[in-house]
From TrEMBL:
Its membrane topology: Multi-pass membrane protein
Transmembrane parts of this sequence: 20-37, 57-78, 90-107, 113-135, 156-175, 181-200, 256-274, 280-298, 305-323, 329-349, 370-390, 396-415
Any GO molecular function: transmembrane transporter activity
Keywords, in A-Z order: Cell membrane, Membrane, Transmembrane, Transmembrane helix, Transport
Gene Ontology CC terms: plasma membrane
Predominant subcellular localization, coarse grouping: membrane
InterPro entries in the record: MFS (IPR011701), MFS_dom (IPR020846), MFS_trans_sf (IPR036259), MFS_Transporters (IPR050171), Sugar_transporter_CS (IPR005829)
Subcellular location, record wording: Cell membrane
The Major facilitator superfamily (MFS) profile domain, residue ranges: 14-418
Keyword check for Transmembrane helix: yes
Protein name: MFS transporter
SUPFAM superfamilies in UniProt: MFS general substrate transporter (SSF103473)
Length: 421
């Protein structure tokens, strides 16, 4: 299915080349999804400290808890909604929810308004990012699934990095509000227009692939499953799906640490807003660009070993942040963290796509992303509590240890999901 396979379902063709125009458009839309998140990465932790005078780490990280919890729950329902109503309506709804977010970040008079903006941002990210993932999987078919996820995640996180750096530079010249968040307003308007006018429905591609799909040898993976059964299978029963779910949770747990604690640690050591912006951008930039290679690589050598290696590399990088006190050391740690995350992120999604039957794949992606993005809330609560009780360095060491343990759990418990491997 590399160059495109025509299926009996209304002449629909699967494959990257056959669907290149729509695939490219969805890459662009997902870049705007990442940009909406990037507008906060540098500025919001500093806004909590300098504008709203939040001294406790736990209080300052409430916006990440709100974002992560909301996004996780929305991810779960996004898959079900995509199966029931189609992909495009869910995508458009996600962008409608995004429109008030920059307005609230600019003019919110109290911290509660900022937290509410992140509830809306979590809904936006859960609906739009989940849907672009599902739509790309629909279009490319099984042969290039890892490559497709690499492009999807790369576009989002490169845009996140570019926006984090841009907002840091903007804030250093024009202040923390309102100028940095005007980028988010432009992103939301552009994405809503593209999603409404140019994006096409892809649900029929999934149905066409299901018609060609061989009968599963494992009865647990049969196409006729309830949402409850899919949730149990993805979370607990299937060793590959459950291993991917826990690894995804821990991955975003350490991303919450990078988002919420790292900028405050860097500021405490005297770094300027602009240099904090560079560090905040460096990690997702390496992560984003790296996925262009790692997604393709997982199609060649399989998923399991890349996931294991990536989690262990992340653990080393986080430990390096804990030991460092200077910009060059932290820059090296951010690069290493980006490499580790690039190995993990698209590969986990590809593994879910490998195992899940096309008839319930969207819901399996939703369950996986429920666990993965729940890691934001867990990470913010854990890191904030440990930082308040024992200091930020202890919180960073604890997350490094958890990340290493997750890598070993994948090595011991996950089976290889890719047929070529």
């Amino acid at each position: 299915m590399t160059s495109g396979t025509t299926t009996p379902e209304r002449g629909i063709r699967l494959g990257l080349h056959a669907n290149l125009a729509q695939f490219t458009l969805l890459v662009a839309v997902n870049a705007l999804v990442g940009g909406m998140l990037g507008q906060e990465r540098t500025v919001l932790p500093l806004l909590a400290r300098d504008v709203f005078r939040l001294s406790a780490y736990t209080a300052a990280l409430t916006y990440i808890v709100a974002f992560g919890a909301t996004k996780a729950i929305t991810n779960f329902f996004a898959g079900t909604l995509c199966d029931r109503y189609g992909r495009k309506p869910v995508l458009v709804a996600g962008w409608l929810v995004a429109l008030p977010v920059p307005v609230l970040l600019i003019w919110g008079p109290s911290w509660g308004w900022i937290v509410f903006a992140n509830v809306l941002l979590g809904i936006n990210q859960g609906l739009t990012w989940s849907t672009t993932v599902i739509m790309k999987i629909d279009l490319v078919g099984p042969a290039r699934r890892g490559l497709a996820m690499g492009f999807n995640e790369a576009s989002g996180y490169v845009a996140l990095a570019a926006t984090a750096m841009a907002t840091g530079a903007i804030a250093s010249h024009w202040g923390l509000r309102p100028a940095p968040f005007l980028l988010g307003a432009a992103y939301a308007a552009l994405a809503l227009g593209l999603s409404t006018l140019a994006v096409l429905e892809t649900r029929e591609h999934a149905r066409a692939e299901a018609a060609l799909h061989p009968a599963p040898s494992n009865p647990d993976h049969h196409g006729e499953l309830t949402t409850r059964q899919i949730a149990w299978l993805t979370s607990v029963r299937d060793k590959a799906l459950s291993a991917a779910s826990q690894a995804g949770l821990v991955n975003n747990l350490n991303d919450a640490l990078a988002w919420g604690i790292f900028p405050l640690l860097f500021a405490a050591h005297g770094l300027s807003v602009a240099r904090i912006g560079v560090l905040a951008a460096l990690y997702p930039a390496v992560w984003g660009f790296g996925q262009l290679f790692t997604g393709w690589w997982s199609d060649r050598i399989g998923r399991k070993h890349l996931i294991t290696a990536g989690m262990l590399v992340q653990a080393v990088a986080i430990a390096l942040v804990a030991t460092g006190t200077t910009f060059p050391v932290w820059a090296g740690a951010q690069i290493l963290l980006g490499v580790g995350t690039a190995l993990v992120y698209p590969t986990l999604l590809a593994a879910i796509g490998d195992v899940a039957h096309p008839a319930w794949r969207a819901r399996a992606v939703g369950v996986y992303r429920l666990w993965r993005d729940g890691g934001f809330a867990v990470g913010a609560l854990l890191a904030g509590a440990l930082a308040d009780a024992y200091g930020p360095t202890t919180a960073i060491w604890a997350v490094a240890a958890l990340t290493a343990a997750s890598g070993f759990a994948v090595a011991l418990g996950m089976y290889e999901t890719h047929p070529r491997a």
